[in-house]
């Protein structure tokens, strides 16, 4: 598949790996990156040999969120075109038909949290940290991500996280329900998960994932 330099994509032994590769900006996502994510996932979702999706960053960061130079229009308002593209990209992860895992090292901020929340499973390194500073930047966090956050953290904890833009370390994120585990070797932990999932029957994985998603997010398109 054709990719741009900021996105690496590979399918090996049933595992589709999408890696954000803009380390100088902690993998902040540009419009071109969102477009590439959309195209790649659309193509990969139809491949019968794909059993699991792995989403990760590079250079010691998962994703620092949106590229702020693209988020704000010239008049200071939020660029609606970028917002729509970002929501479509996040939804492409959420609706990918097979199980997905976010492998989180370093910054997981803003839209990075949205990408992680769109995955079924989230594992983090000891260096990971989590924050959604949208309220400080005049940006309303998207509805689907708010509902996912509410479901995993609970309404009170999610409200505190969003209203204060607090920063959580891995232990705090695990306690809050934002992640499922953290590890000294997060890549090894993710590989174990992906390898185990790849052994499953694809049709059964898709059906099971659909039931889990319908139970957890009944009112939001997933």
What is the element layout, followed by pairings?
Layout: E1 7-12, E2 15-20, H1 31-45, E3 52-56, H2 68-71, H3 80-94, E4 100-104, E5 107-109, H4 111-117, E6 121-125, E7 129-131, H5 143-153, H6 155-164, H7 170-176, E8 181-183, H8 186-198, H9 202-216
Gyration radius, rounded: 16 Å
Specify the structural class: alpha/beta
CATH-wise, what's the superfamily?
Answer: 2-enoyl-CoA Hydratase, Chain A, domain 1
Helix content: 40-55%
Q: Describe the global form.
A: globular
DSSP summary, beta strand count = 8
Which sequence of SSEs, written as H and E, runs from N to C? EEHEHHEEHEEHHHEHH
Query: What is the makeup of the main sheet?
Result: 6 strands, mixed
CATH class: Alpha Beta
- Count of runs of 4 or more consecutive helical residues: 9
Looking at CATH, which topology would you report? 2-enoyl-CoA Hydratase, Chain A, domain 1
The total number of structural domains is 1
Classify the beta-strand content into a percent band: 15-25%
């Amino acid at each position: 598949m054709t990719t741009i330099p900021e996105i690496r994509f590979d399918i090996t032994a049933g595992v589709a790996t999408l890696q954000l590769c803009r380390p100088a900006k902690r993998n902040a996502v540009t419009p071109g990156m969102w477009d590439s994510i959309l195209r790649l996932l659309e193509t990969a979702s139809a491949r019968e040999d794909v059993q699991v999706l792995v989403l990760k960053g590079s250079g010691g960061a998962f994703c620092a969120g949106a590229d702020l130079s693209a988020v704000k229009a010239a008049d200071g308002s939020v660029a609606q075109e970028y917002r729509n593209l970002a929501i479509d990209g996040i939804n492409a992860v959420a609706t990918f038909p097979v199980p997905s895992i976010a492998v989180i090292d370093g910054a997981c901020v803003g839209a990075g949290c949205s990408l992680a929340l769109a995955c079924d499973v989230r594992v983090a390194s000891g260096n990971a940290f989590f924050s959604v500073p949208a309220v400080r930047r005049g940006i309303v966090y998207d509805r689907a991500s708010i509902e996912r956050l509410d479901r995993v953290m609970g309404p009170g904890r999610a409200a505190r996280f969003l209203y204060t833009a607090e920063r959580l370390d891995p232990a705090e994120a695990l306690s809050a329900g934002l992640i499922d585990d953290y590890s000294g070797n997060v890549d090894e932990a993710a590989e174990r998960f992906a390898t185990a999932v790849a052994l499953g029957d694809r049709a059964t994985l898709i059906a099971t994932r659909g039931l889990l998603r319908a139970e957890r997010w009944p009112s939001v398109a997933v």
